[in-house]
Task: structure prediction
Amino acid sequence: MNKLFETINSFIKEKNITNYIFISFSVILIIICIAISYIFLLSISKYYAYDIPQLPPDMSVTGQVGDFIGGTIGTILAFISVLFLFITLRNQRISNSKERFENNFFELLKLYRDNVAEIEIPKALLKNKNYPKLDKLKGRSAFDEIHNLMLVVYLLCKDYCKEKQIDINVETELPNIAYLIVFFGTDDILNKNMISKATLKITDKHPNLIKELIENLEQKSKASDDKRMYVISGIHEQFGHYFRHLYQTVNYVDDNKLLTFKEKYFYVKMLRSQMGDYEQSIFFFNSLSDLGKKWELGEHSKKLISKYKIIKNLPDGLTFVLDPKKFYPECFMS
Result:
């Protein structure tokens, strides 16, 4: 009996709707058993009245009473026991699946931290007076430099389009171009073609826009006092696997059918808390580009950024002229 109560108590602690339904159904069956026993015993009690002289019990009759109770009540109780066994095995399977999920998630989280630590900016990107003695930047320092480079490239492209009176959306189309220039780089004809292909809808309106923007960046780079390399070799080798792994980790959590949304949010929040400010800024620019549309802004996206408030901790003003609240207002709601 104690074992039964322990099992019921464990089911209640699970807070699973299926468990509650099962327990309610079992209680109803037990009440039915008690009711059947009471009605049956009440119906035969008149044959065993206290004022009738005591006679030796007729074993054939009393045996039939026992057979009825055992056959009816016993069958129902056996059915309840089978249900308890089934639900116990089901809960154990769910618990094991959740444990495997959690182990895999923490392994993905470890790989994410390793990816961040291994990101490095080579010397070709460090022709800046702020880093005269460094061969490369690694880890979160790399995100800081790429963030600054991203904003500079965006502002230079914006100024050029304004100066040449080029009709382009500075909140959607221009961030896409600026990010792709930084991501793919401009020192290789193949990279330039990849940028043009990715921005095909924009370059249909302005066929020479990418070429003009890159030439403008080259001129600004040569004239820059701090010798910042606006024309770069690209960061796709350093950051490509980082963004792919980040998406797969969040998608892995979102696809799990056993977790409630509250549990999923908890795990993604754990991942989100690992992201630095500049990392979130670069992630924001990535999500605005054609490469990151699958996060939210694409046609068949799962709206993962707003769903899990991935850039909730992005400081105001860090992305300068672009306001993340306009793109992902749900991320910043209480």
Summary: The radius of gyration is 34 Å. The chain has a mean pLDDT of 77. The longest helix spans residues 59-118. Residues 41 and 65 are 9 Å apart (CA to CA).
